[in-house]
Design brief:
Blueprint: H1 2-10, E1 12-17, H2 18-30, H3 43-72, H4 80-95, E2 107-112, H5 119-129, H6 135-147, H7 151-158, H8 160-172, E3 174-180, E4 183-197, E5 204-212, E6 217-224, E7 228-237, H9 242-254, E8 266-270, H10 272-280, E9 290-294, E10 297-302, H11 306-313, E11 321-325, H12 327-346
Length: 347
């Protein structure tokens, strides 16, 4: 067993259905698990994060299913040993995802090279399995089970330690410091408010209060879970200003991925074509407060993030949408289209 363990720990080839391999590749990209070059996906690191983050929950879920099957089998008709064998067979062949054959239809190969972070856990799994299963099949079932989870839950699995640390900090209202993966030099000191899931059960976000040194005020901030790194607890308990709390409540309502630090209203005029685009372009669509009709056009009124409005309406064509106010948003949109036009004119 020790020799088998050393050989297995060199590299483990795991064959999964093609769609599972594609989903794991996509998640590694969406969660930005890159190598040091910032461009190449570090798939081995991602698989290690998956195993560490999901192992305990996976074992608990499988054990609960096994116990339920075991209790449903009539012991008066079979022996205890046969009952356990039947329960194990039902669990692996009916309840858990089916492991594809290595030469089956469109299998994808994932290569897992144990690291100092995963070696001990993989060794423990090998000891627990004994001769009852292959480690490659075990990981295949685990990865397939992981892929059945909603996207936001998968992110919580991959970044489990950070997710749980942020949850605890939010409950304690304790200040924390962290860096982000795209700017390791800048240290953020914040007061956590809530970790929430974005629209369509996509990414998880930390809503927090952060002091703006330039303005001399506390402001609402939002950070994506996968981009938070090197969390440390601060020495003081945090107090969030009531005005900032109100803005964060608006962020919960309109979308936690966009910061709101004002009560400013915005108005956008949409033509008939603009209304069609608004109904068709779903991703990132802001919630409106009301609609008023004047001279054949629809005026949409918003109280959400100005960044969200800018990023959304800049995708509209021609005269379909026009910012009426605020002036700052109107000027920002004009500058964007002007610079885009200038770029093409220079060519």
């Amino acid at each position: 067993k020790r020799g088998y363990g050393r050989k297995t720990l060199e590299k483990i080839n795991i064959y999964v259905p093609e769609n599972i391999g594609a989903m794991i590749e996509s998640d590694a990209t969406m969660f930005e698990v890159y190598k040091k070059d910032g461009r190449t996906i570090n798939k081995n690191r991602f698989l290690g994060m998956l195993i560490i983050g999901y192992y305990n929950d996976y074992v608990t879920e499988a054990k609960a299913a096994y116990d339920a099957i075991l209790s449903a089998i009539d012991t008066n008709k079979v022996s205890i040993r046969d009952k356990e064998r039947i329960a194990d067979s039902i669990l692996k062949n009916v309840v858990l995802p089916t492991v594809p054959l290595r030469k089956g239809k469109n299998p994808a190969k994932l290569s897992l090279k144990p690291t100092k972070d995963t070696e001990a856990l993989i060794q423990q799994i090998l000891l627990d399995l004994g001769g009852s299963d292959y480690i490659s099949q075990y990981f295949c079932r685990m990865f397939m089970s992981y892929c059945e989870k909603p996207f936001s839950k998968r992110e919580q699995i991959i970044f489990k330690d950070n997710y749980e640390s942020l949850q605890m900090a939010c409950s304690a209202r304790r200040s924390i410091t962290f860096r982000t993966i795209w700017n390791e030099k800048n240290i953020h000191e914040v007061i956590p408010y809530k970790v929430v899931t974005g629209p369509e059960e996509m990414f998880n976000y930390l809503l927090c209060a952060e002091y703006n040194q330039d303005k001399g005020v506390q402001e609402a901030r939002t950070y994506r879970l996968n981009r938070i790194d090197k969390i440390n607890y601060g020495k003081s308990m945090g107090a969030i200003d009531n005005s900032v709390k109100q803005h964060m409540k608006l962020m919960l309502h309109y979308g936690p991925q966009y910061m709101i630090n004002s009560d400013e209203e915005a108005c956008v005029k949409l033509t008939a074509a603009g209304v069609k685009s608004f109904n068709r372009i779903y991703y990132g669509r802001p919630q409106y407060e009301r609609i008023e009709e004047h001279e054949g056009c629809n005026y949409y009124y918003f109280r959400c993030s100005m960044d969200q409005l800018f990023l959304y309406f800049k995708r509209f064509e021609g005269k379909a949408a026009k910012i009426i106010y605020p002036e700052s948003l109107k000027e920002r949109m004009m500058k964007f289209h002007s610079e885009t036009l200038k770029n093409y004119e220079e060519e």
